[in-house]
Amino acid sequence: MKQLLLDIQPPAAPSLDNFVTGRNAEALFQLRRTVLEHDDARFIYLWGETGCGKTHLIQACNALASASGLDMICVDDVHLLSNDDQVALFDLYNQLRESGGRLIVSGLAAPSQMGLRDDLATRLAWGLSYQLHPLSDEEKTQALKNHAEARGMKLPDEVLDYCLRHLRRDMPSLIATIDALDEWSLISKRAVTLPLLKQLLQTST
């Protein structure tokens, strides 16, 4: 039996396509326009609590920019930057503004609410700003059901409930778990049930 099927599959690489939108449709729409269509909005600031998808979107945009050669810089967790790094980001902002480049930055709160240098906070507030909202349990449940249906998989509610209560709750990890469970079900020729999920998790540790 292939070892791959004994392990929880690693999450897929973050992309704009596999980002579960929830209440963040406007931000996702604008990111697509900025990164893929090169529209006039060149500076975007994303903010919100941990788990709302900031890092996913930053990594997805950075990968697209790298693949296409787009002059764009992506900076995650600006609130963690040292004073020297904030000065460097301020200078970079000005350089990109002059050169026609693009900048996407993320942080925990609005630029003026994180104790950043005033000059940097002002620059970040000049561009478009979007608050990202984490998915509710209901939205996660529906997204996982849709994913399972697309695979032709019958996913009992008790399996979903267990995943949300006991496993990593970020969507890439949850989707990877569902995918691994589906493959384990096919290999073992058993229906998807909570005992089967627990067996898979025990085998993968």
UniProtKB/TrEMBL annotation:
Residues 16-63, 70-129 form the Chromosomal replication initiator protein DnaA ATPAse domain. One of its GO terms (cellular component) is plasma membrane. Pfam families: Bac_DnaA, Hda_lid. GO terms for molecular function: DNA replication origin binding. Residues 137-201 form the Hda lid domain. Signal peptide: none annotated. GO terms for biological process: DNA replication initiation. Gene3D superfamilies: 1.10.8.60, P-loop containing nucleotide triphosphate hydrolases (3.40.50.300). InterPro entries: DnaA_dom, Hda_lid, P-loop_NTPase. This is Regulatory inactivation of DnaA Hda protein. It comes from Methylobacillus flagellatus (strain ATCC 51484 / DSM 6875 / VKM B-1610 / KT).
